[in-house]
Amino acid sequence: FSSMMGQSAPFGLAVRFPTQTTIDGKSVPSISALMADYKGQEGWYRPDQSIDPHSVPTLSFGDVLNGTIKTPLTGKTVVIAPTHLESSDFHALPFGGKIPGVYFHVMGAHTLKGGLPLDLLWIPALLLVSAALAAQGRRKRPSKKAAAACGAVLLLAPIAFDKAGINIDVFPAAIALGIGLFRLDRLAARTYNRSTNLLLPDSSSFKAEDVDRDIYALKLTNLGDFRESGISSELGQLVERIIGCLQTYGQVIDPGTSVAFDKDTLVWKAAPLDRSEIEEHALGLLAVLRAADGLGMNGARIDGAVGIDINHGLPLGARIQAASQAAEMATRNGLRVLSADAEFLADRERRVLLLAQMERCIEAGTIGVGYQPKVCLRSGEIVGAEALLRWEHHTLGEVDAAELVRVAEESDRIDQLSVYVLDVALAAGRKMLDKDPEFRLAVNMSAKALGNLMILYHVARLLSKHRFPAENLVLEVTETAPLDDLDVENHLEGLLKLGLQVSLDDFGTGHSSLEYLQRVPSSEIKIDRRFVTHMRSSDDNAALVEGTIEMAHKLGKDVVAEGVEDELTAKRLQAMGCDLAQGYYYSPAVQAEELIAQLERRRFAA
Questions:
Q1: Rounded to a whole number, what is the distance in angstroms from the first to the last CA of the chain?
Q2: With 90 as the cut, is the pLDDT of residue 573 above it?
Q3: Residue-wise pLDDT tens digits, 494-530
Q4: Which of 109, 205, 419, 572 is the most exposed place for a label (fewest CB within 10 A)?
């Protein structure tokens, strides 16, 4: 008799058999050794994996019993074993699929005919992986192609070695390769910048020594354009040239100073300067970048903004973050330099607090909305109103609406705030329409919010929720972002298809231009209060207002003048043909109930 004993490697990657097994004190040959008539050295071995198990001749037991087989069995060794799918003797092949265990024994017999294979264990594969990891460690970043090639060798090597009568174990080496590549990638991420492959650390690698030094953050504002147009090696060379320029020509960064690079921002420490010299020093830094030769790509010049932290008493991580945030804020506000001083940090803390409280108060519905009447200058009658934010917070006090909108835009919460105001305003507007069906309600809408496709859904949903006719709603588009963005234009057209009106708010300031009157679909323009308020004291302002009214009328648009604070200004606007006006001369923003009461009594403003 013989032994069927065998062992399977983890995950079915290999099997192995003994040539002999001791059973009840007797040495019993394995099936494979018995079939091969093996008489050599005792030991364990793995069947030759280069043998295709499907090449083993197989006969149906039913054909043998019926005498219908055509293959002669004389002089051959035959193994009778179950091969049906319900048999428990089914095992995984190293490269997928399953076969009955008897096939492994037959493959083992063919292996033993060439002698007991030499078993080199895990040593060759582990040496190969060690060499591969050592080579990868000399690179800036592990090569995916080299890693894949090494993995392929580990998979194919056992087959080649088996054919030569040599067994090797690759599983420990595969684990070592995976762990090694992961650690090398993490190390490279801390040492080399991902986007440029430069030997530049990120700011987290800075050490806390020299706490009395200033932290500079140079945000390369148009680096994204270069990243899109060039490969990483070219981008890396560009960043290297920028650093070299600042060190060599501008003497802005000391040659021995460590420079960190995060996304599009260079960060370094420098000797402190007098407060009066910091801005001049930073402007000189930017001037060096603009004037230096070889800094650019595809004909474009590099540009940037500088943030500087001078709060030496704060932790290093907080200072780096403050300098980077100052550079980011300088970019957003069109500034060249911004110092993260105590005032900046206090303002930052207020913005964080404002944002947190805004979200809570929106959920609680405690942010108020006031309504400033709009007056027809021909009749003096209140024909509409503008919904305005009015927030009196229990700890923050009265929050300026412009500040709240700015914080919401900077933190990408303007959509949430805009939808909240629209919801509250339409609920009150429905009651105003009950008193005057011709009443038109105006709600401010940031151009940044209009860039989101979901605004179409929210406007349509809220109009339906409050049963508010679309033609009675006017969206006053505030120019906190350029209105000639293609998405903004498309979304405005979608809103117009709902039937509502669009007004260009604060016309004459911001991004507005004559081109916008042609491109942006609007039925109304609103002259900024700065021009209206100074009409009495400035003939130039009066002429600009009058010219704007004439131009708007020729384009078929109504005109609203805001900031009317006295009777003379109101009369001059009326003489100029202005359609509507609003301001303290008529009424400040009031609660919805008060405006509804005025409409109910059919009162006329002023």
A1: 117
A2: yes
A3: 888 899 998 888 776 655 556 667 767 788 889 888 8
A4: 205
Question: DSSP of 439-487, one letter per residue?
Answer: -EEEEEEEHHHHTSTHHHHHHHHHHHHTT--GGGEEEEEE-SS-TT-HH
Write the single-letter amino acid at 456: L
DSSP letter (8 states) at residue 76: -
Note every long-range contact of 160-164, with CB atoms under 8 Å and residues 24 or more positions apart, other chains counting. 160/50, 161/120, 161/124, 162/46, 162/47, 162/48, 162/49, 162/50, 162/111, 162/117, 163/48, 163/50
Nearest-CA neighbor of 564 among 369, 424, 386?
386
Are the C-beta atoms of 308 and 337 separated by less than 8 Å?
yes
Which amino acid, 359? E
- Of the candidates 44, 38, 57, 62, the one whose C-alpha atom is nearest the C-alpha of residue 112 is 38
Separation CA 6–CA 15 (nearest Å): 7
* Tokens matching residue 186: 């993490």
Which of 13-22, 324-333, 576-585 is predicted least confidently? 13-22
CA distance 524 to 500: 12
- What is the pLDDT, as a whole number, of residue 193? 47
Distances in whole angstroms, Cα of residue 275 to Cα of each of 216, 243, 278, 603: 14, 24, 5, 58
> What's the Cα-to-Cα distance from 113 to each of 28, 30, 73, 161, rounded to whole Å?
18, 14, 20, 16
pTM of the model: 0.57
What b/e readout covers 239-248, taking b as 16+ CB neighbours within 10 angstroms? bebbbebbbe
What does the alpha-carbon distance between residue 444 and residue 449 come to, in Å, rounded to a whole number?
Answer: 10
Residue matched to tokens 């009424």: 587
Which residues are CB-neighbours of 576 under 8 A, at least 6 positions away?
545, 546, 549
CA distance 6 to 83: 18
Return the C-alpha torsion angle 317, 319, 325, 329, nearest 10. Answer: 180
CA 181/CA 136 separation, integer angstroms: 8
Distance between CA atoms of 391 and 401, rounded to whole angstroms? 8
Average pLDDT of 259-265? Answer: 78
Three-class DSSP category at 166: strand
d(CA 401, CA 502): 21
- Closest Cα to residue 326, out of 216, 207, 242, 448? 216
List, for residues 158-200, the tens digit of each pLDDT value.
778 877 777 777 778 888 888 888 887 776 665 544 444 444 4
Structural tokens at position 153: 């060798």
